[in-house]
Automatic annotation (TrEMBL), chain A:
The keyword rRNA-binding does not apply. It is a multi-pass membrane protein. It is found in: Cell membrane. The chain crosses the membrane at residues 6-28, 33-52, 58-78, 90-107, 144-163, 175-198, 204-224, 231-250, 256-276. This is Metal ABC transporter permease. Keywords: Cell membrane, Membrane, Transmembrane, Transmembrane helix, Transport. The keyword Acyltransferase does not apply. PANTHER family: ABC-TRANSPORTER METAL-BINDING PROTEIN, METAL TRANSPORT SYSTEM MEMBRANE PROTEIN CT_070-RELATED. Belongs to the ABC-3 integral membrane protein family. SUPFAM superfamilies: ABC transporter involved in vitamin B12 uptake, BtuC.
UniProtKB/TrEMBL annotation, chain B:
One of its GO terms (molecular function) is ATP binding. Keywords: ATP-binding, Nucleotide-binding, Transport. It comes from the Bacteria. This is Metal ABC transporter ATP-binding protein. InterPro entries: AAA+_ATPase, ABC_transporter-like_ATP-bd, ABC_transporter-like_CS, Metal_Ion_Import_ABC, P-loop_NTPase. The lineage of its organism: Bacteria, Pseudomonadati, Bacteroidota, Flavobacteriia, Flavobacteriales. It comes from Aequorivita aurantiaca. Belongs to the ABC transporter superfamily. PANTHER family: IRON TRANSPORT SYSTEM ATP-BINDING PROTEIN HI_0361-RELATED (PTHR42734:SF5), METAL TRANSPORT SYSTEM ATP-BINDING PROTEIN TM_0124-RELATED (PTHR42734). Residues 7-239 form the ABC transporter domain.
Length: 386, 245
């Protein structure tokens, strides 16, 4: 690996981590769309900042642009509060307005400087190592590494200091306010950090793909854990993982680095969405299928319990009487037999003592409709469960 | 003996977009009562609680808790919001939610430690939820979630408890368990103010009641003022007929 290659991966990984942390809270607050809005509406701030400083990595530019991001949030909330339009409409009104101001400013004034819409929207990570931070003639490394490193450090310090406050104001703003932990302060704090992160990251990954780095790792982590701390750690991990592997995909395909990173993020999310152990699509479908079988089993046993006459208990008649297809009847019967709930003599199905007990308990569950009755039952009887 | 006043509300008016939700409310809640706030949907019951607690700003009037503004008396107050007001898919455990009750006394930045954990565990034991402490909150039933909220309020260790429909969506057993805890709180001298929907149970559960429908209709001891007249005024229908139907 060459020196710039390592630097590019390092920048990508740091950008990913800096985005992942506020991203977790945006996802939990159902504000993913706000990050999209911020990422666009910072454009006029970037352009104005660039005219003033002539340097895309200047702290003044970052603060000015981040301020535009916070203004977006204020405007969206103001429009929403009038009650005339809903939040999504308000977002859709505000950010194109601000974004278009930025586009006009660029096209009117910035023809001869290094600032174009493409650069802002898509970023170019490959160029990041060329812009170096020099001090007294010593090369301290790429500027964007320093910028994003500082933003990441500040984000981590704020997260550690205000973890409790972020948690409660996200989960229960009402109680948070009652306890004196102002949800408004936390909200604007989070919006400011998000805006600063987006501005810092646009140079590397572009203003649009930064949204992927904020939302996708958090959404992926959300599928895998039920613990906020683990969700943050997993988001960081997914962010870094896709930053590094995205870089190598780009290298392999000779394609855009930021595009490859975002694609990797999408691929990881898709994989987790399908295969996550508890919340994943396949696991959910499997569970639903099991529940269907369980209900069928209880139906069968109740039927056997209620009917003494042999005609009702004959194996061939079960299909007819309970109105099941042959395959299903066989699955359910096999399952009942495997669990020693029934025995089959001369094609007549009989409940075993265990089957009788189970049926009685099922009845209790059905009558009381209480989950605590079925939980121990599952442990006692449903041997086919993992 | 002169009874202390827990909550005093004067000339309170609250409006959403200039549409009054609460209109000129005067209300005095004496210390040590278990009070129900009743009224039809849209009567402003939740709004009243939220305004007392400073979550909503009134356009006129004032609220005091033991004679002082709410912002000075935060530590005397516990709050149970409506269960539906939070996202129960939030990645956290029952114990963690109960611990949130201690955040107020911790203040900013300081983190909960062993002492706060102990308080939370004790509160969970009181509501019979200790066995579920490590469970993710989405895995709890509606009644269990309500108990977790109640435990969180107990962990706040307050003098006045405000609860927004704590009996909503709970089964009969949980309802009795919750009411018993509220009655115990009153016995130990606390003031409990509950937004309540089920009129049938008011005389059995509460000793104080406020009828509310944008304006205050009546407030006082259940024995004296829980009658058809006030019910009819509040709900705008002939209440006797509605109950006997």
């Amino acid at each position: 690996m060459s020196h710039p290659q390592i630097e590019i991966q390092l920048i990508a990984a740091i950008v990913a981590m800096a985005c992942a942390i506020p991203g977790v809270f945006l996802v939990l607050r159902k504000m993913a769309l706000i990050s999209d809005a911020i990422s666009h509406s910072i454009l006029p701030g970037i352009v104005l900042g660039f005219f003033l400083t002539q340097d895309l990595n200047s702290p003044l530019l970052i603060l000015l642009a981040a301020f535009t991001g916070v203004i977006t949030v204020v405007l969206v909330e103001f429009i929403q509060k009038t009650g005339l339009v809903k939040e999504d409409t308000a977002i859709g009104l505000v950010f194109p307005a601000l974004f278009s101001i930025g586009v006009i400013l660029i096209s009117k004034n910035a023809n001869d400087v290094h600032l174009d819409v493409d650069a802002v929207l898509l970023g170019e990570l490959a160029f990041a190592p060329f812009d170096r931070l020099m001090m007294n003639g010593t090369d301290l490394g790429p500027k964007s590494l320093w910028v994003m490193g500082s933003i990441l450090l500040a984000t981590i310090i704020l997260l550690l200091l205000f973890f409790k406050e972020l948690k409660i104001s996200t989960f229960d703003a009402g109680l948070s306010s009652v306890l004196g932990i102002s949800p408004v302060v936390m909200h604007y704090g989070l919006m400011s950090v998000s805006s600063i992160t987006v501005v810092g990251a646009f140079d590397a990954v572009g203003a649009i793909l930064v949204v992927a780095l904020m939302i996708a790792p958090a959404a992926t982590a959300y599928m895998l854990t039920e613990d906020l701390k683990k969700m943050i750690l997993l988001s960081l991990l997914f962010g870094v993982l896709s930053a590094i592997s995205g870089y190598w995909v780009a290298n392999l395909l000779d394609a855009s680095i930021s595009g490859s990173i975002a694609t990797t993020l999408g691929a990881i999310f898709l994989f987790v969405y399908l295969f996550a152990p508890k919340k994943g699509l396949i696991s959910v479908l499997y569970r639903q299928k099991q529940q269907r079988v369980e209900v069928s089993l209880i139906t069968l046993l109740l039927h056997l319990n209620r009917h003494e006459e042999e005609s009702e208990r004959h194996i061939n008649h079960l299909q007819e009487h309970i109105n099941w297809h042959a395959v299903r009847a066989k699955t359910v019967l096999d399952l009942a037999e495997k669990n020693n709930l029934v025995e089959i003599r001369n094609n007549i199905v009989l409940l075993t003592p265990k089957g009788l007990l189970f049926t009685e308990k099922s009845l209790q569950y059905i009558l009381s409709n209480k989950d605590e009755k079925i939980e121990p039952m599952k442990e006692d009887f449903f041997l086919f469960r993992g | 003996m002169e009874q202390k006043i827990a909550v005093q509300i004067d000339d309170l008016t609250v409006a959403y977009n200039y549409k009054p939700v609460l209109w000129d409310i005067d209300l005095t809640v004496p210390e040590g009562v278990l009070m129900a706030i009743v009224g039809p949907n849209g009567a402003g019951k939740s709004t009243l609680i939220k305004t007392i607690l400073g979550i909503i700003k009134p356009i006129a009037g004032s609220v005091s808790i033991y004679g002082e503004a709410y912002s000075k008396q935060r530590k005397l107050v516990a709050y149970v919001p409506q269960k539906g007001s939070v996202d129960w898919d939030f990645p956290t455990t029952a114990l963690d939610v109960v611990m949130m009750g201690t955040y107020g006394s911790l203040g900013w930045i300081r983190r909960p430690g062993q002492k706060e954990k102990k308080i939370a565990l004790e509160a969970m034991e009181k509501v019979g939820m200790l066995a579920y402490k490590a469970r993710q909150i989405s895995q709890l039933s509606g009644g269990q979630q309500q108990r977790v909220f109640l435990a969180r309020a107990l962990a706040q260790d307050a003098s006045i408890y405000f609860m927004d429909e704590p009996l909503q969506g709970v089964d009969a057993t949980t309802e009795i368990a919750i009411i018993n805890i509220l009655k115990e709180l009153r016995k130990s001298g606390k003031t409990v103010i509950v937004v309540h929907h089920d009129l049938q149970t008011v005389p059995e559960y509460f000793d104080w009641v406020t009828f509310l429908n944008v304006k205050k209709i009546a407030t006082g001891p259940v024995k004296e003022i829980f009658n058809d007249d006030n019910l009819t005024q509040t709900y705008g229908i002939n209440y006797k007929v509605a109950v006997n139907k």
